[in-house]
């Protein structure tokens, strides 16, 4: 019997304050609904930051968790295991890749990708080809290397000198990319849709230009599909719609539907540069996480599920259009599949957090993508009834914020 009582206040008393969680404490979830410790229910439009792509407590994932949990959780990297080998084969069958490295998160997958790119350049071209090109407002993780490569300086400031050889360019600027990518460039890392940076899709011509420039100068093209991958865009990986194939792809978030797992996918020609002992992980590719991820990949790669993402995307955009007809708060709605960003008008710039907080009070779990954008990343299989109920509640939250703004005295 657990008699240790905890509340939201307990967070402030026991946790390092790098997060500022909502006032309510989620307790359990089923499908696209979550209940807090007080028994209140919420429609989940956040999906644990684009993670629970199959919703909460999916019965087939629970069965895998139970079955594999009764067999083998962890064995260490001195051994392989059947679930991780099946997962690797499944991912490689679905993509350009024929080699996989498994980690525990998107940051770790990106760390591996960037290290591999540097190693390839070192062994093929020598010690001077080290430049990594990234893009402003990009996000690639919270390790010191990945946060330095990411294009949001606020996340890397205050921790000492950043690693050398990193250049940031404007996203979707073809000419800037052509001028910058050169003989010293070992890799270009790009999100097909910038997630944390405001849900901004890449122009296909921009991605083609990056591919051409990388080929011209012997650089590797890395697609960060941590947020866009595993069905989120309506394709299993977003690159598959663009006509551009990367050399390395990173994936995490939805891959485990909440169980921590990430992967770096690449070709056998590049993988040989990661010889035994060059890189590693303790927990990455453990049998429990791999078994869950294998079932996620099986379910999400079903063409019927991916078609459902497209139809739900249209429904969600329709709901946003109705909200905007009523309130006029969105300047632009953008994104693909069920990764949708609604940018606020000038009158509400910087107020995304206010809408997210109000949504919580009215029974909707929401996200932002920077201070000006509301982000919608629900389950890929969210029932339409839940979606419509969520938007009805969200309308009440928006009405509250808009009304309070109208009543506020002029400054």
Blueprint of the fold:
Blueprint lengths: L7 H7 L11 E5 L2 E4 L4 E4 L2 H4 L8 H11 L12 H13 L4 E5 L2 H20 L5 E5 L8 H6 L16 E4 L4 H7 L4 E6 L2 E2 L5 E2 L2 H14 L2 E5 L14 H4 L5 E4 L10 E5 L1 H4 L15 H14 L2 H25 L2 E7 L2 E6 L7 H10 L2 E2 L1 E2 L4 E4 L7 H24 L4
Parallel strand pairs: 3-15, 5-6, 5-7, 7-10, 10-11
Antiparallel strand pairs: 1-2, 2-3, 4-12, 8-9, 11-12, 13-14, 14-17, 16-17
Helix pairs in contact: 3-11, 4-11, 12-14, 13-14
Question: Can you describe what's shown?
Answer:
- Homodimer.
- It is found in: Cytoplasm.
- Pyridoxal 5'-phosphate binds at residues 106-107, 139, 224-227, 282.
- The structure is a single chain.
- The protein has 411 residues and is an alpha/beta fold.
- The chain folds into 2 domains: 8-57 and 303-407, Aspartate Aminotransferase, domain 1; 72-300, Type I PLP-dependent aspartate aminotransferase-like (Major domain) (Aspartate Aminotransferase, domain 2), CATH 3.40.640.10.
- The protein is 40% helix and 18% strand.
- It is built from 14 helices and 17 strands.
- The protein has helices at 8-14, 47-50, 59-69, 82-94, 106-125, 144-149, 174-180, 204-217, 239-242, 268-271, 287-300, 303-327, 352-361, 384-407; strands at residues 26-30, 33-36, 41-44, 99-103, 131-135, 166-169, 185-190, 193-194, 200-201, 220-224, 248-251, 262-266, 330-336, 339-344, 364-365, 367-368, 373-376.
- The strands form 4 sheets. Strands 4-12-11-10-7-5-6 form a 7-stranded mixed sheet, with helices on both faces. The chain has a 4-stranded mixed sheet with strand order 1-2-3-15.
- α13 (352-361) packs across α14.
- It is globular.
- The mean pLDDT is 96.
